[in-house]
Amino acid sequence: MEDEMTQSFNTDQHNLWVKRLRIKMEPPSLKDNTGDADRLARAIKKELGTEKIIIPYSLIGSLPHRLRDLHYDCSVAIYEYGHTWNTIDIFSPDVGDRAHGIAMDLGSSTVVARLVVLTEAKVLEEISFRNPQVELGADILTRIHHAAQPGGLKELNGILIREINQQIARLCVEQNVNPDEIVASCVAGNTTMTHFFLNLDPYWICREPYIPVINTPGVVEAGALGLGINPRAPVFVFPNVGSYFGGDLIAGIISSGMARNDDISLLVDVGTNAEVVIGCRDWLMGCAGAAGPALEGGVAAMGMMAGPGAIDRIEIDPATSTIKYHTIDEKPPEGICGSGFIDLVAQLYLAGMVDMRGKFVASRCGSRLIHVDGLPHLVVVEAEESATGQPIMVSQPDIDSLLRSKAAMYTILTTLTKTVGIGFADISRFYVAGTFGSYINPRSAITIGMLPDLPLEKYQVLGNTSLEGVTLALSSKDTRDQATRVRDQITYLELNVNQEFMNLFSAAKFIPHTDPSLFPSVPPPVSQ
Amino acid sequence: MEDEMTQSFNTDQHNLWVKRLRIKMEPPSLKDNTGDADRLARAIKKELGTEKIIIPYSLIGSLPHRLRDLHYDCSVAIYEYGHTWNTIDIFSPDVGDRAHGIAMDLGSSTVVARLVVLTEAKVLEEISFRNPQVELGADILTRIHHAAQPGGLKELNGILIREINQQIARLCVEQNVNPDEIVASCVAGNTTMTHFFLNLDPYWICREPYIPVINTPGVVEAGALGLGINPRAPVFVFPNVGSYFGGDLIAGIISSGMARNDDISLLVDVGTNAEVVIGCRDWLMGCAGAAGPALEGGVAAMGMMAGPGAIDRIEIDPATSTIKYHTIDEKPPEGICGSGFIDLVAQLYLAGMVDMRGKFVASRCGSRLIHVDGLPHLVVVEAEESATGQPIMVSQPDIDSLLRSKAAMYTILTTLTKTVGIGFADISRFYVAGTFGSYINPRSAITIGMLPDLPLEKYQVLGNTSLEGVTLALSSKDTRDQATRVRDQITYLELNVNQEFMNLFSAAKFIPHTDPSLFPSVPPPVSQ
Questions:
Q1: Nearest C-alpha of chain A: how many angstroms from B200?
Q2: A243 touches chain B (CB under 8 A)
Q3: Are A273 and A407 within one domain?
Q4: Using the beta-carbon criterion (under 8 Å), do B57 and A211 form an inter-chain contact?
Q5: Last residue of some domain: A95, A125, A144?
Q6: What is the pLDDT of residues A85-139, one digit of tens each?
Q7: Based on the domain organization, do B64 and B118 belong to the same domain?
Q8: In this structure, are residues A179 and A228 in contact, taking their beta carbons and an 8 Å threshold?
Q9: Is residue B127 located within the same domain as residue B58?
Q10: For residue range B103-142, what is the model confidence (pLDDT) as tens digits?
Q11: Residue B287 and residue B412 in one domain
Q12: Is residue B271 part of a domain?
């Protein structure tokens, strides 16, 4: 099942749920006075070999003029849902038979969108842009509260949809595609983001017992959502398992292929929340827990999102304590992103510059260790080398924060595997997902004790699995329908933060762990 | 199959396509964090025993507040279409479990509407009101031309929907029903009227090859039509066979029960157009032809629509030439409606006051025969007896016009029966439908040679069969679905107005006919 992603993205015309058909009709005559809408439906039925065709009311009014203009020879866009084919629109046959779609991963800070030729399973262009809701609330909880204000939900929905529409319009201009020819969309996001997208009130999501308005939105017409594509285009919104287990993770499960594997896999989406799923084709169990913002680079003073100029890889020569770093796009360094931060702490540990507790070892750090506002800081990049003209540093609290995050992650992984009654060794494949995940170095993550000490070949770094999943679902009915099946299949484990959890968490706050036998591949710290 | 109408209108709960269900859900808890919409869908599925439940997007947003207000105990209105159940709305269980609907016959001059408790198949109130489109065009053709003007269609649609909504609002106040609790509607009309109702351009209906925009509109949501009932209420619009064979006649076929009879029946809807269907459970053939406006009382100077004060029955004593008349509601006479006009000409003929050609016989008419503007007129009611203070008269041209109409009708009936290869005697039941039809006296219609000379017991006068049909379809899925089956079953006979037709027509312009052997029950004219 390796390369599931790539394989599934081959176009199987029989598996398309959005199609373009060339439909030539006999023009009306006294011998056949069938109405225009019925004539079109009859021709589509004949072409598809099914009786279940709907010509929606909103399309009917324009048919007589357009069919006559096209001399009853047109290209029809249709979509299947619930074993019924719905007509989206008719086009001149001159525009060809490619059906375009928009795949979207709705992140709370970043939205990534792809313009896809879904009939060819081909990505024309991918763009990412800041979620404009950040202006109304940096984190999801602030936005949920904002939504509860009068007009707040409408504002949050409106600002998001407007930005998406502007970006789609830009994509269309660049790719020379008429927005009306975008005839489908698939969207995934965390549960709150999909609520904002659907203009549904997330009020109860963050209040016990944490109830979403909807788990399985299925298909909604673009027009009802105000989306700037064909108004009858189906928008498939990935289902969620609950308030804290969103459609983005379902999309990730699907793109990883784990729900089709015989062996047990584990998928972890690393972000502010650690979202973890374990299982195989027969069963799936998932849980989500707060890991803190350290892993997304949101806490460290010099932290930044992965992007040009972010330090994403670090090596330290234990002999000389020399720090070598790499930046994204090899731009002058501006800050450190999450994966760079994990590398840094792993390398500091291996070089003896921090101890098991993550505390700076002054004797090994040398002149790099300075004090700012009374707190110890390590200079990673000198001022003269940095893009900002300021030194790039990490503070002791930054490292403490990362260790709490990695401890939370490891504890969640331990709890979940214990619950299903297996050990880490039973996991045959360990998928690391998330925008952040695409830069992570599993070796470093093991070194700091964030991920279990498995053979490196078991780790597979997948990147934005949510975006991959929605892209696949655009071109494949199987994949789209699998989303709902997978959702129904998942047992959600409510993390019980009890004394046992806290004990595990405390033991995991060390590098790599209070019990080093759990991490045999990690060398003992350099003697100080 | 007698009393088909009454029988079918018994409520069969298993045959309802619009239902109200009492749905009690377990309120959300940490043990069951299912989303509100999914919780509702799950409960409905359980109650109905089917998987095919849709909670439409437009309903979802309001669910969380409302379900909590109702403590997850509500009454749900749902409807079935295409083997799927759609959720219309949720209500407080306090409002009970009656589902209300609106049945509507869209006439080009008069709209008749019924407020129905469809779950009990009970008519609460029936109202009729003038089609306000008359202001924009007295006849259908003028309106089709008006629709082709800029904004014309919107105007015709708007004036109709607004009037319907005002009338529905009035019905609701009178019957103490909240418009949101009207959760379904069934509508029939001629093809052009249903196009106006659906805001579809009838431009091509009156132009060769006479193509409607749609034959089978099926179910459209009330909100999309701007109808002032629950916006998610399904509106079933009866299908048409073509531009000149409308859903009103399909509804009539259904309410007559003829499509379920083993024997051959004939249904004639008498109006400006003579619409005729012949057949049985195995086959149906229909045709429509212009009969002229005489039969609806639209031509005679003293003609009027059936209504209070209209003379609807006339008897003449052949010995004394005394005219006895009856008016609707026994109000002072204001004019003569179609059925009264047929009675009048039949009685004038039997009394020898008109001859076989329909010409006044001066010697038998006496002082009742006067000349106005050089044309012979017969005074039916003297000025002192009439409601208007003016004498009520018919002119020679009025009678000529009626004879052309009746000749057209008889010719159409002859042509249709010849085409299917039967004689009138093979017809076991002859249904006379239409608002006009409810007042017609078959004996008189036979006397003037409008209807064939069959035993009177074969005639069944049904009244507004269209309204009966739509009313039945509101409470019965079988009936609703039968409408589409019957439509598909009908062979439409395009009337070919050729020499043979014109010969038949000329022969039929006499009273009762040039060949009196076709009308053995009609006595020869009184010798003059």
A1: 5
A2: yes
A3: yes
A4: no
A5: A95
A6: 999 999 999 988 899 999 999 999 899 999 999 999 999 999 999 999 999 998 8
A7: no
A8: yes
A9: no
A10: 999 999 899 999 999 999 999 999 999 999 999 998 899 9
A11: yes
A12: yes
| A2 assigned to some structural domain | no
Shortest distance, CA A167 to any CA of chain B (angstroms): 25
Residue with tokens 């209040």: A207
Domain membership flag for residue A281: yes
Q: Which residues, at least 6 apart from B38, have a Cβ–Cβ distance to it below 8 Å?
A: A214, A215, A216
Last residue of some domain: B95, B121, B154? Answer: B95
Residue among B520, B475, B508, B513 nearest B99 (CA) = B475
Q: Which two tokens stand for residue A176?
A: 């020379």
Higher pLDDT among residues A65 and A3, named by residue: A65
A122's tokens: 């081909």
Question: Which of B378, B350, B401 lies closest to B512 in space, CA to CA?
Answer: B350
Residue A33 at interface with chain B, using a CB cutoff of 8 Å: yes
Pick the residue from chain B with its C-alpha nearest to A488.
B34
Summarised one tens digit per residue, pLDDT across range B48-61 is 999 899 999 999 99
Residue A57 in contact with partner chain B when CB distance is under 8 A? yes
Tell me the β-bridge partners of A81.
A84
| B107 within a domain of the structure (yes/no) | yes
Tell me how many domains chain A contains. Answer: 4
The enclosing domain of A142 has a CATH number of 3.30.420.480
Task: Look up residue B186 and give its DSSP letter.
Answer: E
pLDDT at B498: 85
Burial class (CB in 10 A: 0-12, 13-18, 19+), A317: exposed
Domain with B487 in it: what CATH number? 3.30.420.40
Contact call for A38 and B215, based on CB within 8 A: yes
- Shared domain for B422 and B475, answered yes or no, is yes
- Chain B positions touching A36 (Cβ under 8 A) are 204, 211-214
Q: Do B213 and A84 lie within an 8 Å CB cutoff?
A: no
3-state SS class at B415: helix
User: How far is residue A223's CA from residue B156's CA, in Å, rounded to a whole number?
Assistant: 26
Encoded amino acid at A53, one letter: I
- CB-based burial label for B151 (10 Å; 0-12, 13-18, 19+): exposed
- Got the DSSP string for B25-86? -PPPBTTB---HHHHHHHHHHHHHT-S-EE--HHHHTTHHHHHHHTTTEEEEEEEEETTEEE
Does A60 contact B216 at a Cβ distance shorter than 8 Å?
Answer: no
Cα Rg, chain B, nearest whole Å: 26
Q: Does position B297 have pLDDT exceeding 70, yes or no? A: no
**Residue B378 is part of which domain span?**
307-393
SS3 content of chain A, % helix, strand, coil (to 5): 40, 25, 35
Residues in a beta bridge with A79: A18, A86
Report the alpha-carbon distance of residue A202 to residue A221 in Å, rounded. Answer: 21
